[in-house]
Design a protein that fits this description.
- The protein is mainly α and 320 residues long.
- The chain is built from 10 helices and 5 strands.
- A hairpin with a 2-residue loop joins strand 4 and strand 5.
Length: 320
């Protein structure tokens, strides 16, 4: 049964990370949250074309860029290969836990997810609930034992008080906001879509400091296809990923500016037009805001009809 409403807590507007999002990202988040085909686990199919039709002012390119930004800020997780999207805090914030049967349905829905990336994120979300049934499903989605470490762990003989997370595993947000409430803690490394946090304070939305992408390996291992674990390579990789994130932000901001300018131009044209309604239509036809268009079209039809009449007269004279 399709959902008929979406749950949004009023505390979302006090969430620092949510307030850092640009308006386009906030709007897209609400659009995703209110889709009728969101599962109880917070997963829905990747349907950029459909979402672009939610407003006459958005395009597929703008939706795709905005979705990538939401993923970088960790409000959603996206897998283009399996065409799945996860609203990451859905289970915690949509009232799923309050109804036992609904939560059971959410656990079943989680097990149907195909994307390894989404399964890993869901496993992390379920473990945050500290419930035995949620932990069981989390272990099936993404066992903790499957986490590997690229570098040796100091004092490996000691027993860790909790499982050590790898570099790409989803960290647990600190806040209670509708989105994620990451707080003002130290930014995490990494730039893969949906796999890391990239708030504005981490990657400024401005031109990258260098024109070329920095190498993702240290000088010692530059060009190696399978370098050994190396802290220098880890630092270089983080710098390269930061550069990539800046590039994506710059591209997204440019596209957003273009979209806002087009919307402003269209709104101004509608406001200055005496022919169309406030939506820019004349009946069911999109208005071109040209007051001479009707008269010009009539003149054109008259010229065409006169030319056809002249040809018919000439043809008749030639046959007689």
């Amino acid at each position: 049964m399709a959902r008929e409403h979406a749950r949004v807590f009023t505390r979302i507007w006090s969430d620092l990370d949510w307030r850092k999002l640009p308006p386009l990202e906030q709007r897209l988040y609400f659009l995703l949250l209110s889709q009728g085909n969101v599962t109880q686990a917070g997963v829905l199919p990747l349907q950029v074309r459909k979402w672009a039709k939610g407003s006459d002012y958005t395009t597929e390119e703008e939706i795709a860029a905005t979705l990538a930004s939401l993923a970088e800020h960790r409000f959603v997780v996206v897998d283009e290969d399996t065409e799945e999207v996860l609203i990451r805090s859905f289970i915690r914030n949509d009232g799923v836990l309050k109804i036992p049967n609904v939560f059971k349905a959410a656990l079943k829905a989680a097990l149907t997810v195909e994307s390894p990336k989404l399964r890993k994120a869901l496993a992390g979300e379920l473990r945050r609930l500290r419930r035995k049934d949620a932990n069981t499903v989390a272990d099936e989605l993404f066992p903790i034992e499957s986490v590997t470490h690229p570098e040796p762990i100091p004092n490996g003989s000691r027993t860790n008080p909790e499982p050590v997370k790898d570099r790409d595993e989803f960290p647990e947000p600190r806040g209670e906001g509708e989105g994620e409430g990451e707080g003002e803690g130290e930014p995490l490394a990494g730039g893969s879509v949906g796999g890391s946090r990239a708030p504005a304070s981490t990657y400024p939305r401005e031109a990258p400091p260098t024109e070329q992408r920095p190498p993702a390996q240290c000088r010692k291992h530059l060009g190696h296809t399978d370098p050994p674990p190396c802290r220098g390579c880890a630092t270089a990789r983080e710098a390269a990923e930061a550069w990539d994130a800046q590039q994506r932000h710059a591209h997204h901001d440019a596209r957003s500016a273009e979209a806002r300018q087009r919307a402003a131009d269209r709104a101004a044209a509608i406001a200055n037009c005496a022919l169309c309604d406030p939506a820019g239509y004349i009946g069911t036809q999109l208005c071109d805001h040209d007051p001479d268009a009707t008269a010009r079209a009539a003149r054109g039809r008259a010229l065409v009809e006169a030319e056809l009449a002249a040809r018919r007269t000439t043809a008749t004279q030639e046959t007689t």
